[in-house]
Input
Amino acid sequence: MPTNITQVVEMQRLHIHILNKIAESLALKGVMQMSAKIIIGTQFGDEGKGKIIDCLAEDSDIIARFQGGNNAGHTIVVGDETFKLHLIPSGVLHKNKTIVIGNGVVVDVKILNAEIESIEKRGHKIGNLKIAGNAHAIMPWHKAIDNHEEKLRTKKIGTTGRGIGPAYMFKAGRTNAIRMYDFKDEKRLAKIITETIEKNKDYFRRINYTCTETDLIREYTAISKKIKPYICDTSILLNKALDNNKKVLFEGAQGTFLDIDHGTFPFVTSSNTVSSAACAGTGIGPKRITEVLGVVKAYTTRVGEGPFPTEQENKTGERLRKEGHEFGTTTGRPRRCGWLDLVMLNYAKNLNSLTGIVITKLDVLSGLDTIKVCTTYRTGKNETEIYPLDLPDLKEAKPVYKELPGWTEDITVVKNYEQLPQNAKDYLKFISERLSLPVKFISVGPKRSQTIMM
Ligand code: IMP
Output
């Protein structure tokens, strides 16, 4: 036992030293360092994931996409430059990062090639890009089918027309599907193109899709030469990286309610957009995941058709669209706008096992006298906190709002939480408490510097 003050201090020093050693060795073994974070959209997409991923990419070794294709759109602002990306993961603009296009993505190789060229033309280097060999390709006929099917629908989905659905259809159908591995072998690629055109010629004629086989083969062979070096087994790459305590960021596209199983079917995209898709879409196991962050726009938007209970088809909606620049990155379509919906977000919390949330575009709400948040739905005489998955029930659901006081201050210059107006803090607190989730970041503008870390 220590007998005097010097001995007590010495003992404490020793304890701290031992604790530091334990922490160091745990970090070396990866217990503390390994991180596999998923960033997911909690609404209908366009939550501002691109900027958040871009910010988090700084502290990551690998950024991987796992589903969707060039139906997505990320706007990233770096200094005075604005980049609009659709396929390449958002982390591409950081130096010394590996960026992965996982097997769950459908890849329009022409778009991929164009994005690589446009980034390079602007003086930025494409880092260590890796494309999963088992990812499927979007081909021109997929786009033709997508547009044809949309025309035939009496109730339009409002697809982006990028061929996403048909590419996944061919993948699930297991005939005439083209994978990235096929681009490594020009003869194999040419054979599949020929077989596909031959087998589907009547159908292609019916939907007015015309092409010259030799031109197509020439064009895609040329592209294959460019993308070949990037193609590999990205599952092995990611698992090895995680074994070596690298930090991996999984970049979700679209949003939870556009998920093909859990979204507002049929007004959804053709892939699983929920967090669990990060595993199947990259070839890692669920035990690897250490964090799931849900990106929540401070209000709700939707592009394309489908139910949207808190939609404001009025001056409020117009104001949100104008102040939030709510026009699609991919198609330029005006986004439908409405209030935040906690019924949806609570459902999204469970679907994704969210561990925290990121609130984006909080600045867009500045200047509103009151801000409404939907807390429950009224269906007939009942009030419910449960999100109805059956479309007719959802269409009937009337949002019940809690009104919170707004703020007038410009918050785009705010650098830390303490500087936010009290009413903005109360808005964040209300959301966080209702979801029982911590707010990890708050975005108050498009620039990297306009991000408040909690
Ligand atoms: P698809 O994914 O092109 O088949 O479109 C299906 C639906 O998802 C349409 O309503 C699109 O507007 C919507 N959608 C697809 N990708 C995105 C996205 O990145 N953000 C928002 N909506 C999207």
